Amino acid sequence: MQLLKFPYLVQKEILEEIYISDLFWMSLLSKNMRTLIKSSQIMRFRDISRLMYESDIDDKRKVYILFKTKNLMGTDTLGIEGIMGISDHHDEESENDYFQLNVSGKMIDFRLSNRSNLPEAFFHPSERKSSIESIHNYFLDFFGDTFEYIWAANNPEHFIPNLPNLSVWVTNWPKRSEAMGIISLGKFFASSPVLKYLCIKSTTQKVLSPKSKFYQVESLKIVQPLPKTVNALLRHFQGRQATLFFCKVEVFPLIEFMNRWISGKVFQKLEYLKLIFTSNGIALNEVLNVNGVKHIDATKTPPAHTVANVFHTGFGENTEPIVSHTYVVRETDNRVASFSIEDGDFVFGVWKETEQEFLKMLE
Asked: Across-strand partners of 55?
């Protein structure tokens, strides 16, 4: 079928019925085909919410997209389509199985993978950086930059690229991070881009330098952090969201954190903080006596604070609601933060609203 010879409206109708993943491969056939698909599928591509470079076996990758769609009942849901695989294990004995395509000006070998039923890019390890850069640049040109591009890693020894419009998640890393020394961790953060998300287990007595990009991670989860790590995070965190599981902390660092947030001199990006303690032995109620803590009348129902999770895989898109009668106000911009102390846990959520706007929500 000579698609390019049909009238534009017919071409558009045909392309609307083709999977997005297949449109991607069709776009590599010619410049004219790529131009046609991009111009006719603009609205459809805007429904894409994320492109993932997901960690697979060893250091192989599976690339897929998440997009908004509707199920058979007509309700909104998320769809998923695999695009391609990526591997730097080039098998020279099977070169006859490969076909070459021009991707952003670079010739890259591909073959059909029996394991994933997806075309897979193969290249020599020495070509890894330039090949992944070419593939990523092609995605940006073809799909656009209106959604997230995520590189998900689960091994600190694996390659992590530093590319435009690419965020990095480090997931399922607690065991590996526990085995790494503080020097190795420091080198990892120094050589990596600022991470979008990090899940780590930290049982070391030493802490990273305040200048480390560890404290700049947008969304951070730490399992079993020791008091020194908790104290350092409460002083130096520059990201948006943090959850600390099974931690121990004295009440003074919490009070200091509250006072420093109220001053407006630090934690400018903070949206959500949760500390889950191993025991309720500390006097958490002393936090309620911090200067500047305000209380909502017990007869009124406070608004529920929640923000979009930086890290989610299609479920749990928002943080757990904070419904609290206690709040504080930042001196520099009059913005409000609700905080709660329940069952020995400490939760802190920053509103976009000023105190005046916040109190109007009670009416």
From this structure: 61
Q: What is the pLDDT of residues 14-37, one digit of tens each?
A: 999 999 999 999 999 999 999 999
Report strand pairing: 241-247 vs 219-223.
Answer: parallel
CA 270/CA 177 separation, integer angstroms: 25
The whole-model pTM stands at 0.80
| Rounded CA separation 18/41 (Å) | 11
Reference 84, options 47, 104, 109; nearest CA is: 109
- For residues 360 and 363, give the distance between their C-alpha atoms in angstroms, rounded to a whole number: 5
Which range, of 64-78, 129-143, 256-270, 278-292, averages the lowest pLDDT? 278-292
What helix, strand, coil percent values describe the chain, rounded to 5? 30, 30, 40
Residue 8, both tokens:
């534009």
Residue 165, phi-psi category: left (phi > 0), alpha (psi -120 to 50), beta (remainder): left
Report CA torsion sign: 247, 275, 170, 227: negative
Please tell me the predicted confidence (pLDDT) of residue 76.
80
Under 8 Å between Cβ of 178 and 203: yes
Whose tokens are 């500047």? That residue is: 292
